[in-house]
Specification:
With 465 residues, the chain is of the alpha/beta class. It has helices spanning 43-55, 82-88, 108-121, 135-144, 160-170, 195-212, 335-349, 374-386, 412-421, 440-445, 457-463, and strands at residues 7-10, 16-17, 33-36, 97-102, 126-130, 154-156, 174-178, 215-221, 240-245, 252-260, 268-274, 277-280, 299-306, 309-321, 328-331, 356-362, 394-396, 399-400, 406-407, 426-430, 450-454. The strands form four sheets. It has a nine-stranded mixed sheet with strand order 6-5-7-8-4-9-10-11-12, sandwiched between helices. Strands 15-16-14-13-17-20-21 form a seven-stranded mixed sheet. Strands 2-1-3 form a three-stranded antiparallel sheet, with no helix packed on it. The termini are far apart. Bound molecules: thymidine-5'-diphosphate and magnesium ion. ATP binds at residues 102-109.
């Protein structure tokens, strides 16, 4: 007799192993494997899947030269929320599946309710499926958002089969499932929110969307304790992955594209939370600069890039006498890079922080991953250590290498233009980012900004001496 096959699935990454481990062999997360008995796949289902796959391919598998294939520009429908459209690459695409992940309470439901309502008002049939709140709760939220008269259809349901039936019947152009972790199918015995359920439900919903040409938006919670299967389990299945993030204590919310088959990734949409919902922030730079009346030590404005968009962010550093084991802590910036920068500062500029606690923070809850933040971090640290503020209206960017060299950053001129636009006065930037022969347009765009091109960290520190 065939033994029942048991499989262990990871809640974090969805990887499977035949045996239980304390640590997932795929993603290295601890304690995330859960036992599942894989349902034997009915042949009809398998055949349906195969034919669905085939549909997406050319009918007869004809061979064509890439240049001869007509590149169909996908039709997009703007959602009416400009900041959301920016990350989506212009709007929602028919048949596309979008996953929106984020911590509970960050504002996913609010964002989607607003977007869906705007689409409904624009004349598109929509459907909002809620598994987390009752219809009455959704209505209450809509009233609070000033959308009390919304014609948007709402379905409070968690059974997958019922949701699929409604999708077939109503044929919405855009449907939101809030959240995928609450949906379950009776075909599987595992609990809602388990990897097997989340994966299977998402797969069936995705197929329904592809078949009907509807845009499907799946909401996925990220949970720290891993009690629910995370959105990462689904990332490879969907066309677009957005993450909704923000500091719980700040009212700003960022939507970031992690993956997008229909647009550029790492685009950023910025929203402010208000009593009446999320409002797009057209000029986010102003938002991440804290307003000091006088320049203070340890603060440096960084001209960073979010996607293709230049953004000014204040980087703060605090250097203070540490104990026997000095701490290096960073919020919003990479800690390993901070340690490296401190070593560069010591070795190449003779500024020692070995016995000091060093804290750095990117204001406003932004996360900065690009190495072009190096120079600003380094100058903020030096400024805090010296107890001397950087000049008024000071801005910097540039990658710092282990040899103390300052390397150019992408789109340097656009960063400088943004800095000038926001009234910055002094910029210390990689020399290679300055045009050799500045043309009239560049001079006009950076008017009022004194530019210092540097090749080494020592030079940068000399400018702000
Ligand atoms: P919610 O959209 O329910 O978050 P999620 O779906 O990600 O769990 O938002 C959480 C709470 O914040 C909710 O009580 C409403 C409130 N909120 C506002 O008051 N204004 C806003 O702009 C947003 C986004 C949320
Ligand atoms: Mg919600």
């Amino acid at each position: 007799m065939a033994k029942d096959r048991t499989l262990y699935l990871c809640r974090a990454c969805g990887g499977s192993t035949p045996r239980w481990h304390g640590r997932c062999p795929h993603c290295g997360a601890w304690n995330t494997l859960e036992e599942t008995v894989p349902a034997p796949e009915p042949p009809a289902n398998a055949r349906a899947r195969f034919s669905a796959l085939r549909q997406g391919l050319a009918a007869e598998g004809t061979l064509a030269r890439l240049a001869d294939i007509e590149a169909a520009d996908v039709a997009r429908t703007p959602t009416g929320l400009a900041e959301l459209d920016r990350v989506l690459g212009g709007g929602v695409v028919p048949g596309a599946v979008v996953l929106i992940g984020g911590d509970p309470g960050i504002g996913k439901s609010t964002l989607l309710l607003q977007a869906l309502d705007a689409l409904q008002r624009a004349g598109l049939p929509t459907l909002y499926v809620t598994g987390e709140e009752s219809g009455a709760q959704v209505a209450l939220r809509a009233r609070r958002l000033g959308l009390g008269d919304s014609q948007m259809p709402v379905l409070a349901e968690i059974r997958l089969e019922a949701i699929l039936a409604t999708l077939r019947q109503q044929r919405p152009a855009v449907a939101v499932i809030d959240s995928i972790q609450t949906v379950y199918t009776e075909q599987l015995t595992s609990a809602p929110g388990s990897v097997a359920q989340v994966r299977e439900c998402a797969a069936l919903l995705t197929r329904a969307a592809k078949d009907s040409g509807a845009t499907l938006v799946l909401v996925g919670h990220v949970t720290k304790d891993g009690a629910l299967a995370g959105p990462r389990v689904l990332e490879h299945m969907v066309d677009t992955v957005l993450y909704f993030e923000g500091d719980a204590h700040s009212s700003f919310r960022l939507v970031r594209a992690i993956k997008n088959r229909f647009g550029a990734v790492s685009e950023l949409g910025v929203f402010a939370m208000t009593e009446r919902g999320l409002k797009g922030v057209g000029n986010p730079s102003a938002l991440f600069l804290s307003q000091h009346r006088e320049p203070v030590p340890g603060s440096c404005v960084l001209a960073t890039l979010e996607g293709t968009r230049p953004l000014l962010v204040e980087v703060q550093a605090l250097v203070d006498a540490g104990g026997p084991a000095p701490r290096r802590l960073s919020v919003g910036l990479e800690r390993d890079r901070l340690a490296m920068l401190l070593a560069v500062l010591h070795r190449h500029a003779g500024i020692a922080t070995g016995d000091q606690d060093v804290f750095v923070n990117a204001v406003g809850g932004v996360r900065i991953a690009e190495p072009a933040a190096d120079l600003a971090v380094l100058l903020a640290v030096a400024s805090s250590l010296r107890g001397r503020a950087l000049p008024r209206g000071f801005v910097a960017f540039g990658e710092v290498g282990l040899a103390g060299e300052v390397r150019p950053a992408q789109r340097g001129q656009e960063r400088l233009k943004e800095a000038a636009k926001l009234g910055m006065a002094v910029a210390v930037v990689p020399k290679a980012n300055l045009p050799r022969k500045p043309d009239a347009a560049f001079l006009r765009a950076t008017e009022g900004l004194t530019l210092h091109g540097v090749e080494r960290v020592e030079e940068a520190l000399e400018v702000v001496r």
